[in-house]
Amino acid sequence: MTLPRLVLMVFLQALILRDVSPLGQWTQPQWALWALLLIPPQAGPFIKLIAGFGMGLGLDLAMGTYGQHMVAGTVLGGLLPSLHRLMAPREGYEVNDRPTLKDMGSSWLLGFTLLCALIYHLALMVVTEWYWHLFPAALFPALTSAAFTTLCCLMTHLMVYSPDRRKATS
Amino acid sequence: MRNLWLLLQRNAFALAFIALMAVSLSVLMRHNGAVRSSWFIRTGGLNASVEQQRLQWRSYLHLAEENIALAEENAALRAQLLSMEMNAEWQPDSLRGWDVRRGMLIKGPDGHPHTQCLAAPGGDGGIEVGMGVLSGGMAFGTVEEVGEAHCRILPLVHAATYWSCRIRRGGPVVSIGWNGMSVDRMELVDVPRYVEANPGDSIFTSGYDLRLPADVLMGTVLDSRRTSGADFISVSVRPAVDFLSVRHLEFIQALPDSERIEMAQPPAP
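Above: the input entities. Below: the structure tokens describing the complete assembly.
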């Protein structure tokens, strides 16, 4: 399910959702992150790394950005295992825990999404701006974009895994 | 060998991470090479057609904003038209070694990419090849050829030439050129991405091309576009001179014995 979700989100972001930017450079969301962050914590580190790289490659191919998303995606994919360990509950993850609101709770989901979005946007900022003296001006837009990405991911999450649907299924 | 294999196995994830980062960074670094890469070539055509469709829909959905922008541009043009009579004339500055002669434009730019202008006077009036030409104190072009009573002028809006200029007074030196499309819009070329060019910034001559004195107003920055991943930014400039309605010209001549006159002459055949 992870792969189709990633492909779908990459295409949606490249074709439609990249224009959803109400405040210009201050709010440039990376919607595809939502699919990447849904990889279960129990998945192997290689899967996370390859998924991050693949997502970046897909975004680069679809948006013509030539390597920027590949670098950011690989950084995030490489750090995902450590982030999962860092954010693990005291008693560890259950076998069938998914990184969803239902399984992990709202504070975990919010913190994890924000952390990942920050890493991704900062990596993207570094490779996009490239020159040291351009970083200060790009830092604040990267931070606000990370916050907006978090908001978008949570919105998508609530739409896909809506509480109503959970009630209906339970 | 076995130990090496064990070491590789133990650090397989780190090695995979480094390998993927190397691939990503190599694509990023070899930006031009990436364009030649077969992956990107295959997807490039598809991207372009999808992007075209997307832009069409986007422009359709932004008609209201475009109308507002056009209305603002219209208002600015009307204001410029009303204030044209108030344009100050360029004053010769003896410290810089320049003198001025007045003239009339007979045939101005017509919007075609390679049109040259015709003006009076010519050699009888002291006009020489290589003199700079201003209009209302703002850069217009340079004298290319001189007859007895007329001269031919290469205007700023000529698609075959570039002019040296500065972004803001004392700012970085870049080149400005015309793409042959609209006389209301010129483009700065080879502007590195670290240069700041904000809408409203003035563009002045740099004086380095030996055709116009330094610090003569050329235009105003309309907008600058920073393409993601590109090494240069695209900057559009609105020329200060309204090329379609110019009538009066000032011919700028370097004062005698200046080496500029000598260097501005075309080389001997």
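Note for the figure: The interface with chain A takes residues 12-13, 16-17, 20-21, 23-29, 31, 34-35, 39-40, 43-44, 47, 50, 54, 58, 193-194, 228-229 of chain B (CB under 8 Å).
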